[in-house]
Structures are given as C-alpha cells and as structure tokens.
Amino acid sequence: MSITAKELAKKLNISPAAISMALNHKPGVSTATRQKILDAAQKYGYDFTRISQKITVHGAVYLIIYKKHGAVVADTPFFAQLSEGITLGCKKENFNLKVTYIYEDEDNTERQIEDLRVSDCLGVILLGTEMTAADIRPFLKLDIPVVLLDTYFEELSCDSILINNIQGAYIAASYLIKKCGGQPGYLHSSYPIQNFTERADGFYNAIRAAGLPVSKSVVHSLTPSVEGAYADMCEILKKGERLASSYFADNDLIATGAMKAFKEFHYRVPEDISVTGFDDLPISTVIEPNLTTVNVPKKYMGEIAARRIISLIRDPHQPPVKTEISTTLVKRRSVCLAHSPQK
Questions:
Q1: Which of 130, 134, 255, 337 is at 20 to 30 A from 153, Cα to Cα?
Q2: Per residue in 127-145, is it b (16+ CB within 10 Å) or e — as a string?
C-alpha cells in the first residue's frame, strides 16, 4: 500500500505544507529539503499519479542560449524553429518558458550561471551548439535538471538531444557519389563545433564505404555564413585551387555562399559543380537552383527537449539518455548526373 502525503510528513517530521510544495514542484522549500522529500516519497512508494500532470507549475523552464563566438548560433530559422518546438512542448504541459542569453566574453558569466540557483528555474534546456565540454560543466554542478540541446560529449553525464549528424552527412555524400560519380569534395566549416566534427565523420564514412581514398578528397575551409563562405570561396577560385565536381557542405549557409561564388566565376550549378547542404533552411528553396540538402526536424527536436526536461523535473532520478533525431535527404535541383568542372 502506498504512503500518503500526510503519512510522509509525519515520518519525516516535516510540515504537510512543505511536503505538498515539494511533491507539486512549487517554491517555498529549500533544494535539499525538496530532494529529501522526493527521495523518501520514492522510497516509501508514494503514488505520484495523485499529482495532476496538468497542474499549473510555479516556476519556469529556462532555455539558455549560449553564444561562444556567435558564428553559428544566430537569429536564423534553424534556431527559431528549435525555440518554437520548445515553446510548444512547455505549453502543452502548462510550464512557463523563459529564454535567456549567455555570452562567453562577458565578465559575469559565472554569476549568471550561479543566479539560476536562486531563481524560479525548475530546469534548463541548454543550447550547446557552440559550447565545449568545459563550458557545460558549471551548469551540471547546479542542483537543477539540465538537458543539453544540439550537441553531445562522451565525457559528460547528462541528457542530450541532438541531430544524427553522422547519418545526415553520410546520406548526402553517398547521394553525390551515386548521382555524380567520382569523388565529392567537402566544404568544411572553419569554425570547429561538435556538429561539424560529426558531419565530417559521416562524410568520410561515405567516402570509405564507396571504396574511395580519403586522401584524395578536395576540402575547402569556409566561414559558416553566406557572405563569409562566398568571400572565402572567391579567394580559393582566384588562386586557381583544384576543384571537385561535387561538394557536400556542412550547412546550407556555406553551400549558398559557395554557389554564389561558383556562379560569379562562371561555373554552372549543377551542370559543372553539384552541391548539397545540411539543415534544410528556407534559403535552400529560394536560391537558384534550389539546394539539395539534409532535413532536420527542428521543431520536433525542440519539443523532444521540452518533454525531456519536464520529465526530469517531475522525476529527477532518471538516468541520463542521449536522443538522436534522424535526418532525411531532400532532393532538389543542385545535383545532376556525372560531370566535371569546366569554365
């Protein structure tokens, strides 16, 4: 027979009001007391289904957008759709959502993180796109549930929701090999983040699976923005560096910038050079030709992050899980049959 809240209060010698606040995730008790009550409730078999899953929660889920250099995390449709999914997921469960930015170059970063302890924060969804493992560790020291979004590190024990980058890059590169023949080149981001490292793994896995030599891959390092990639590729073309007949790009912005440069130097896309991107941003349907790219279900990814943090708020004793969101290839007109670059 399960224990009641009143019996739990008597057993712990804690007021029934404090028991109720802890079990219903309301403010008014210390973090240590709350954890003591939740541990005891689980130990003595308290029936957590007594608590309405739709109760209005006092406190909020915090979406923390961490900007290290800002070259990747920006006000783009990718992150807007992630945020939309998180908002929807929180709304479905009657949780408030607060969005805050942390900039690494500010002097008060440590204080901002520490302030979460005394705020109304019930749990953190941490956008880790530009972060390293060292950047994330201070958040994990807080006595607050944390879900890491859009990255993963083997050395960290925390929940992570991320794209299956290896799979996405693999299917894109394999498609280029099948459609274009020969060995695809790689438009690699000059900014090192975990997502791009994993996409590189997927690209080279496809090269190896096709029996092609990795050492023969033509790789250009480009800034991960449209204008940055355009400027970098123009310099490469001016120097007359060797080109591939097709390219996989780390994201759609790089692909778009490179295509702009190719056209300026009189290379036809896709007749002379085929290009695929990653992310399926709106720009991929606007540019001419439309960009073949890897679709990431961004809104769904945000919803999954919201569900997970709410689950951890309600039951913080769950073991960490890594959730990878699968991708699909969207075939458009930037890829054609076998060709070689020519002016």
A1: 255
A2: bbbbbeeebbeebeeeebb
Q: Which contiguous run of DSSP H or E holds residue 187?
A: strand 185-189
Tell how far CA 268 is from the center of its chain. 33
Q: Report yes or no: 233 and 261 within 8 Å, Cβ to Cβ.
A: yes
The CATH 3.40.50.2300 portion of the chain extends over 60-164+298-326, 165-296
- β pairing state of 246-249 and 328-330: unpaired
pLDDT of 83-142, one tens digit each? Answer: 999 999 999 988 999 999 888 766 778 888 888 888 899 999 999 988 999 999 999 998
pLDDT tens-place string over residues 229-282: 999 999 999 999 999 999 999 999 999 999 999 999 999 999 999 999 999 999
- Name the average pLDDT for the chain: 89
- Pairing mode, strands 121-127 and 146-149: parallel
Compute the distance between CA of residue 312 and CA of residue 126 in angstroms, rounded to an integer: 14
In contact, 228 and 257? CB cutoff 8 Å: yes
Between 3.40.50.2300, 3.40.50.300, 3.30.870.10, 3.40.50.450, what CATH number should domain 165-296 receive? 3.40.50.2300
pLDDT confidence of residue 79:
84
Distance CA 273, CA 233 (A): 13
Tokens of 170: 């693999």
Q: How far apart are CA 306 and CA 63, in angstroms?
A: 9
In CATH terms, the fold of domain 60-164+298-326 is Rossmann fold (3.40.50)
CA separation for the pair 190, 322 (Å, rounded):
27
Length of the chain: 343
pTM score: 0.79
Rounded to a whole number, what is the distance in angstroms from the first to the last CA of the chain?
Answer: 81
Looking at residue 46, its amino acid is Y
Helix (H) or strand (E) segment spanning residue 325: strand 322-325
- DSSP-derived letter for residue 140 is H
**pLDDT the model gives residue 54:** 45
